[in-house]
C-alpha cells in the first residue's frame, strides 16, 4: 500500500514540476506521469547502481557531484523511453532531477507520520 502511495506522490511531484518548468519539461497526462514514476523507479533501481560503479573514480574526484549528472542522464533515458514525456536538454534534465528529489522528499514526509 505504501509503495502505491509513493508512486502516486511521485506522479504528483512530476506534474507539479511539469507545471513549473512548462515550456522545457512536458508530460502529456496523469497516466504518463504514473508511467514515468514507475520507469524512473526501475531505472534508479537497476541502472543507477551500475552507472555509479562504472563512474566511481570521477564520482570520488568530484566528491559525489557527478551523481547529479547520473540522475540527469537517467531522466534523459526516461524521456527517450516514454512517448508522453519530453525534456528539452541536459541542463533541464538536471534541474528536473534536483527539483524532483526535493519535491519527493517533501511529499514522502507527509506519509511517514
From TrEMBL:
- Give the protein name, as stated in the record: Phage holin family protein
Q: Does the keyword Transmembrane apply?
A: yes
Q: Where are the transmembrane segments?
A: 29-47, 54-78, 90-111
- Source domain of life: Bacteria
Q: Which UniProt keywords apply?
A: Membrane, Transmembrane, Transmembrane helix
| InterPro entries linked to this entry | Phage_holin_4_2 (IPR007165)
